[in-house]
Amino acid sequence: MNIQKNRVVSLSYTLTLANGEVADSTTEQDPFVFIHGIGQTLEAFDRNLEGLKAGDSFEFLLSAEEGYGVSDAEAVVSIPASVFQGPDVPEGILQVGNMIPMQDQMGNPLHGRVVSFNDEVVTMDFNHPLADQSLNFTGTIVEVRDASAEELDHGHVHGPGGHHH
Ligand code: ZN
Question: What is 81-137 written as a DSSP string?
């Protein structure tokens, strides 16, 4: 069975950056499982896997534009330090390079990286940590199957590697 839209794909992969750093990986024993072609992964990631079947290996390179985008200067913002004070804020959370879970004005979760801080202002970068990076993916297809009607309805995989509910 070949990979195409609305099929459930299990695969192992290693994501390597241009500097050789391994940013992420999964194994064939504990694969990444997703529904192909519905936006669960990067569009270019889906496209490069189309037509492959179980046992096939793959290697492809995505540009930063195909990956997590190029960084946007407007996504680097100054926030009053008072936001990071109070009983709910873990002590020592303000460290340069720290990723801090936050939310935007609409309440959507997003992560910011601390660029710098002083007593008044914290500068945070909300660009994706992998912005500006070309992404080299290598791996092996473990399994391809049709998604169930329920999985397509929910927009995620059920069972091993997916949701249990
Ligand atoms: Zn579900």
Answer: GGGG-STTSPTT---TT-EEEEE-TT--EEEEEEEEE-SSEEEEE-S-TTTT--EEE
- Chain segment 53-80, per-residue pLDDT in tens: 999 999 999 999 999 999 999 999 999 9
- For ion ligand 1, residues whose CB falls within 5 Å: 154, 163
Nearest CA-CA partner of 13 in 128, 139, 143, 145: 139
Answer whether 67's CB lies under 8 Å from 130's CB.
Answer: yes
Tokens 């397509």 correspond to what residue? 152
Cα of 86 vs centre of ligand 1, distance in Å, is 37
pLDDT in tens, 101-142: 888 888 888 889 999 999 999 999 999 989 999 999 999 999
Distance 152 CA to ligand 1 centre (A): 9
Query: Which residue is listed with tokens 């309440």?
Result: 107
Element (H, E) at 154: helix 149-154
Measure 112 CA to ligand 1 centroid, in angstroms.
29
What is the rounded distance in angstroms from the CA atom of residue 96 to the CA atom of residue 115?
5
Tokens standing for residue 94? 């303000």
Close Cβ partners of 96 (under 8 Å, ≥ 6 residues apart): 114, 115, 116, 117
